[in-house]
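Crash report, auto-generated. Payload:
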Amino acid sequence: MYNETVMDHFTNPRNVGVLEDADVVAETSSPGCGDITKIYLKIRDNRIVDVKFQTLGCAAAIASSSMATELVKGKTLEEAWTLTRTDVADALGGLPEPKLHCSVLAEDAIRTAINQYRIDRGLAPW
Amino acid sequence: MNGSSAQKRQVYMDHAATTPTHPDVLAAMLPYFTQEFGNPSSLYSIGRRVRKAVEGAREQVAAALGAAPAEIFFCAGGTEADNWALKGAVSAHRSRGSHIITTAIEHHAVLHTCEYLETQGVRVTYLPVDRYGLVDPHAVEDAICDDTIMISVMMANNEAGTIEPVGAIGTIAREHGILFHTDAVQAIGHLPIDVEAMHIDLLSLSAHKFHGPKGIGALYVRDGVAIERFVHGGAQEKRRRAGTEYTPGIIGLGAAIERACTDIEGHAARLRRLRDRLIDGVLREVPHSALNGHPELRLPGNASMSFAGIDGEALLLMLDAQGIYGSTGSACSSASGEPSHVLTAMGVPPRLAGTSLRLTLGEVNTDEDVDYVLAVLPGIVERLRAMSPLSA
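Recovered output after restart:
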């Protein structure tokens, strides 16, 4: 059902855990399946210099979080904002159709975190 | 779990999904593919020999149920048997009424057939269950209307493992002159069955759940019970189920059911001991774990448990990576992505239902298998919980 890349990011997730010195933390949940993802971002000079995640969810949700954090690490906030669920699913080499919605959580959490970071600094959210 | 040898261990604990065909069963089947390949409807000797073997298998199935051979009809499996029982009985008894009573925890083979029948003007009552998954026979009786033609309650649930009071429900059905069907797919070889004592009119079974081959099952139809034919065509199965018989499968079903029902109590006692060690060990070792279903009235091999704060699919795949094969909810449910309708009907909140793991033991499992699961499972749950935002 899952390809090797998905299984790799599920069984050996990158960037999993808590970022103690995060500049912003955001959590999103899926009303449908109850999955929850929390994203921690450390930002220096408008760039994501470190990122961690925690996810309660299926293999697709965990692998998507892992891949999404890999994709935004080192990116500017503008670049990170453009990350879509399709980018995440594509980078994973595809997800089964019923599991595509699981890749939404990571994207949502990252965008929520970026906007929270902007709000915290008196900037208008994107 | 240290070293590659431990990681290569394979522990199959999904016997409610399917079982390996027993070598003796396979050996009984094999001649009917290549040597005794005749069509049992043919009049010459090779056909007559196969006919005799098919009728022998029918006797084996009948003996396991306390039925007469003429009451056994071979078909493709449990799903077909359930479809046939419901649709066939409704067709044959439509003049008497159009109401069916079933439960919220039936297999989809029953539930989705009932939903189809609703589109054909049949009224269906889906009875609730208690938190253990038990159907209340009094609720069955209270649901009976003047136009009720059939009651369908499974003998034991495939997910939670709860054993239903089928004997009591059968008695009620008989008193009211209503047909009683039971899906016994999970029960064969695990529970003693007597269609007379339990007042069962129709019973579905499937060979691959008890070390027989896939693709073959049977419907028991009590003598005198009218049921519309399901597959139209030739005169096979007394004109009730057309199509050339799957003779190797039928021989396999007969051999498997005779094997499975030879020492049910001894087999069940062995499974119960292993299962209880597994359940007790997991509940002891894993914080915030809970048993699904009834503590005593459960199938001897069924260990269905919930682990708050993780996802059942993630747990299943982590176990798979360690060579342990189980399921979450039911295999059908995990494909649909919906929380288990069985656990939800038992009042388990959808999120907790999604954390469920079903391990179902079979005759191949050993104490060493249980030890291995107990060595591996708690660490995996801990690891998944550490990944979860709820842990911090």
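Post-recovery validation: The interface with chain A takes residues 309-311, 313-314, 317-318, 321, 335-337, 350-351, 354, 386-392 of chain B (CB under 8 Å).
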